[in-house]
Design brief:
alpha/beta; 5 helices; globular
Length: about 160
Amino acid sequence: MTKSKPIVYFDMDGTLVDFQSGIDKLSADARKHFDDRFDEHPDIFASMEPMAGAIDAVETLRHHFDIYVLTTSPWNNPNAANHKLAWIKKYFGDGEDSAFYKRVIMSHHKRLNQGDYLIDDRSKAAEGFTGQHIHFNTGEFTSWPKVVEYLLNKHSNT
């Protein structure tokens, strides 16, 4: 019997995606109007850039782990889900060879997903998740190379 690969979930905003890059592209009027609720801007998710090292990290980890995107789509932004999927296709491709082809989960309840790891920049989002929360951009996980090194060292036989 073949051993299954450990499951890793990737959050998007602040983890794969540089949320600040989208804010920086908004007009001054839009920044003022959507202050403290930028995720409600109808086009914010369409203009964001990847976090440094995120694309390479996914491309490395996909060969060792069973990977998925696990992200929340803001309740008050009906464009967000479409823009998030378009972002994934833009940076990872939309064909069957894409790292995330048919591997995108949008949920406000990440704890309902079973897996080994959740890479997320928010601890609140990981509450109740039964696997290990890799708290991105904090502690020992301050960059994508550090996350990749940790996961590969932990599962060197996968």
